[in-house]
Amino acid sequence: MERRGFIKLCAAAAAVARQLVFAAAGLRPRFYPRARLVDEAKQPLRVANLAVSRNYVFHYPFEGTPCFLLNLGKTTAQDVELRTENGGSYRWPGGVGANRSVVGYSAICTHRLAYPTRQISFISYRDRASASRVARANVTASSR
């Protein structure tokens, strides 16, 4: 067996084991109620009033779990087939609103399971490349 195949087998076994542990413990997914996002005047946010490329931060489902609401200004991909960690699949319908350009994201870093705070974080959406990304691109281009 090749290394890649062995790693895939181990990952699949870990996913199955995790599901069995959850099932044995009686754990089930928790579903949270919908939330209404409001502006400073406590009026419901309207998609048509969201500025393009502006970060709207809200907390859901808890005060300690920040999320971004973004109007990307252009239509997102539609009906994208995605895979879950355990190999399942689901279809992401794309953005919402008249232009299908509004999306929401959790601000929690998935690889570190950490989240930003206003005082120490620079996490935000930027519609242009950052200086470090441009520098990496230049290094890659010059090394060819």
Topology:
Blueprint: H1 3-24, E1 56-59, E2 66-71, E3 80-83, E4 89-92, E5 102-106, H2 131-142
How does the overall form come out from the CA principal axes?
A: extended
Question: What fraction strand?
Answer: 15-25%
> If helices are DSSP runs of H or I spanning 4 or more residues, what is the number of helices?
2
Q: Please estimate the helix content.
A: 10-25%
Distance between the termini: 34 Å
> Describe the biggest sheet?
3 strands, antiparallel
* Secondary-structure-derived class: alpha+beta
Order of helices and strands: HEEEEEH
Given as residue ranges, the uncertain stretches (5+ residues, pLDDT < 50) are 136-144
- Order of strands in the sheet with most strands: 1-2-5
Mean pLDDT: 76
Write down the Rg. Answer: 20 Å
**How many β-strands, per DSSP?**
5
Question: What does this protein structure show overall?
Answer:
With 144 residues, the protein is an alpha+beta fold. The protein has a domain at 32-125. The chain contains two helices and five strands. A hairpin with a 6-residue loop joins strand 1 and strand 2.
Give structural attributes:
5 strands, 144 residues, extended, three-stranded antiparallel sheet, disordered C terminus
